[in-house]
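Chain A, query sequence.
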Amino acid sequence: MLGRLIQTPIPKRAVHLCCTLLICICVLVVSAKAQEATPRLMVVVSRESPIITLSSQDVSLIYLGKKTLWEGDLRLSPALLRESHPAMQYFIEKKLGKSVGQFRAYWRKLLFSGSGTVPKSFRREEELFQYLENNPGAVGLCTGEIPLPPHLKELTIEDWKVP
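Chain A, predicted structure.
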């Protein structure tokens, strides 16, 4: 025989402490996941641009090709990081209300019908910043993972909750 299992009662206080600790760990994990799921997004233009605020609707219209001119008839040129970037996926899904596949299909349809120009896409924020510097009508969507260069400024987005 392998022997008898000796059972000793576990004090209630120890059970309570273990349950409390487990709940705290779960809350921390869920909280960390929630912060991961809402990346920081910044809408950026040249420092010389007179624009200082946009509405969330304006941002959506710009990235869906429905708003193509700034005030004063300067052509808008939207740019963003690649769709594979988690922050851009978040923007497309949560702010534009489309899946990445729907966003691509939407722009393909506009492009082939001659109704729009696809936003410029960049691998790195430094490349995006360079594009914004060299194109007066450009507006960029970035994460703020690196500091903005002095020739750019972040716009205030009214009624848009961005962490």
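The longest strand covers residues 42-46. The chain is about 40% helix and 15% strand.
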